[in-house]
Amino acid sequence: MKNLIQKTAFAAVVMGGFGMATTVASADEAVPGLQNRTIGYVLTSANWGLYQTPDGKQECPDGFNEGPREQFKALYPNLGTVDGTQLERESASRYPMDKADNFPYHDVKGKIGIGLNLDGKVGENDFTSTDGEKGIDNNLYRAIGCTRLFRAPDGTYANFTDLWVREMNFNRVLVELTNVDSLTNDPAVDVTIYRGRDKLMTDATGANIMPGGSNRVDYRFGKNFITHMKGKIENGVLTTEAADVHWPWAVFLGRPGAYDFKGARFKLALTGDKAQGLMGGYSDIDTWYMQLVRSWSTHHSSYGGLSQPSFYRALHRLADGYPGPDGKMTAISSVLNIKMVQIFIEHEGQKVAAASDAKAKAAH
Amino acid sequence: MRKRGMRKQLLIGFAGAAAVAAFAAPVVKLSAAETIARAVIPAEREEAQKVPMPPVFHVEYTELDGPVFADAQGRTLYFWPNTTMRNGVTGDPKNQSMCTDKVQTHTAGLMSPYPPGLELPELKTRKSCLDMWPAVYAADDAKPVGAFTVITGKDGKKQWAYDQHALYTSDQDKVPGDVNGASTKGGQGDGPAARDVAQVPSAVPPGFLVRTSAEGRMLLNDKNYSVYMWDKDQANKSNCDAACTRSWVPVVASVAAQPQGEWSIFERSPGVRQWAFRKKPLYTYALDAETRSQQGSDIPGWHNVYVQKAPAFPKEFTQQDSETGVVLADAKGKTIYTYNCADDSVDQLSCDSMDSPQSYRLAICGGGKVERCLRDWPYVVAAKDAKSTSRTWSVVEVDPQTGHAAEPGKGLKVWAYQGQPVYTHILDKKPGDLLGNGNGEFGGSRNGFRAFILRDDFFGGR
């Protein structure tokens, strides 16, 4: 009964909006991507949510952070041995607490931020969103917002990690909504995150990703990325309950990696051919840091003023969620700006062999 | 199959004993019982093209890199391609050798962000470029043959060159068939200006390529896409029907193509000729989105084609699914890592062997502290009765406190790949974890650790 009522209501909304057709269309007909109460989307863009003013003076009144070159010059004005300089700095990236770090680190100081109210509270350190919502939790923004590497569009990390969302199949995030009766209002839908296997469908120029493509679920190597969530759709906006998410995002060529979000949730505006909005959650700080160290070399970090040892301290100082046994916070509030297009998700070959199977071993 | 290969190898080994003896004493101290005399070349080995060469050279067959040129003593020949680095160029220009006997004392600043002029480690024992890469000198009356020519260095000495590249041997190679100086274990992208093996061109027809992979010498088409074979085919006869060919595209031979060696051509339908290798009809897989893919081999009965398989991994090792593909793992399923290192001198000398300065590795694996390295990046200890199974996979004895080779019987017996110990990582908790991969300078390409990936579905393979 719910199904029929909602389909009719949705059709009426659609038809009313376009002022056409007098016959009642089903939801499936009105939204081509919605078939069998299921619609899929594929990630086409992702950026850490940073609120930026053009010159950065509002959020970073003390300026931007200095990076490896500047710190090296300050520490070793007369150069020295490889062991005592270069390798000491490389050690510091991996074991940052071995030695003191006396360089200033600039946190974001502004009051406006992008994100979600993850803890359901309005605290004095919370940001206010650009549309006035209070209680926004995004301390990762505080930690990285004054480091040029992470600021779009010029920061190389921001630029390339977004580009590689599209270019690397490793990062092929699929979001499937099932049990959907309406993309406008539906009090209960199921949301599943998968990793796909295939390239994105583009137009003839190759520059624009088109809705309507297909992508196979990676059930073998991508099984760690499969996450189920409960959600609802209100006025065309999907919100989900919180879940822990292992999010595939190789942030450098040839370096597979992922971020671990605790209590992650979506807030996405949906249409039949795209979805756009936020995914917020508490990022595990150790995973975040090691992903950076393994992927962004000291050289590449130098392009945008990122000192890894200095950033490590900021990440730990600003962590604000999920205290560990010692009481120290293990995660930091964060948000991703994400864009998706509609896609048909193929669930082929769910039963796949694993390399550890005896058969696979014998084959070598 | 393996038994036949071993037998043939032993015969070769016997015949080559004199050549083995001619090698200089190994720098790395391995006990005789723990090493084997020669490379283990399978019976189905890669065929080399017949290439004219001076009598002082011959073809050696290697476990990982197929047929290579070697000097009279069986030492693999290498060259040093001119390479553009982050802040300059190094390596040999054509018909010149930049490798000298001068011991470099400071970094050249070829990489970034560190400035040039830093004093290199352990200068008292540091080797010169020619110490590590002995030049292959030519006799005064040496004459060019084919692509082999004679160049004259700045010191007036005559040196052999191949395809206009000055030739060297490697001090890391101990016996014929070793390719321990090769770039197969090296980095990508921002890796060092590495030396390349002087490979003998593989005897494949036009339209095919062979590339080194962790599983063996992989057959590809000339666009780098994988080539497959099917169990249900017969000798020089395809049973892949019209429906089958929607997924499996026969590799067709042109009208002018001729069979050669292990390569045959059969007519799959009137006027359509298909290539076969070792009598197995060949195909590409329509769903392969990436080059060098192994995804087609997930379909039962279909297999990638290797003109020569790599040596077997140690028996106690396992293979595990990771988030990027299949990785090599120890008996408990922990991912295996290799350590790669090259310094930033103008010579770009490697620093990842047991006789190299260990400060590079210690900086990455433990912030300079040995005990932390042993905790965070433990060696893969060999089982008590473990023995070297090939030149590629060997049991070596290491002094854990120094990282250098130990006297026979006095060290920790660990597994080594191409002569260098392999490791696991403390952050890997469950089989398939890869949390140490890329840890090091330039993602582990220059001074750091890289996972031993057997199949990479996303980044183009190892």
Describe this structure as you would to a colleague.
The complex is a heterodimer of chains A (364) and B (462). Helix content of chain A is 24%, strand content 26%. Chain A has 364 residues and is α+β, with helices and mostly antiparallel strands. Chain A folds into 2 domains: 1-30; 31-348, no CATH class. In chain A, a hairpin with a 3-residue loop joins strand 8 (258-270) and strand 9. In chain A, helix 7 packs antiparallel against helix 9 (308-318). Chain A is globular. Residues 1-29 and 357-364 of chain A have low confidence and may be disordered. Chain B is mainly beta. Among the domains of chain B are: 215-309, no CATH class; 318-456, no CATH class. Chain B is built from 5 helices and 28 strands. Chain B has a 3-stranded antiparallel sheet with strand order 6-7-8, with no helix packed on it. A 3-stranded antiparallel sheet of chain B has the order 10-11-19, with no helix packed on it. In chain B, strands 14-15-16 form a 3-stranded antiparallel sheet, with no helix packed on it. In chain B, helix 4 packs across helix 5 (370-376). The radius of gyration of chain B is 23 Å and the shape is globular. Classes of the chains: A alpha+beta (364), B mainly beta (462). Chains A and B meet through helix 3, helix 4, helix 7 and helix 8 of A and strand 20, strand 21, helix 4 and strand 26 of B.
Task: Write a concise synopsis of the structure shown.
The complex is a heterodimer of chains A (364) and B (462). In chain A, 24% of the residues lie in helices and 26% in strands. With 364 residues, chain A is an alpha+beta fold.
Label this structure with key terms.
heterodimer, A: 364 residues, alpha+beta, 2 domains, eight-stranded antiparallel β-barrel, 10 helices, globular, disordered N terminus, disordered C terminus, B: 462 residues, mainly beta, three-stranded antiparallel β-sheet, 24% strand
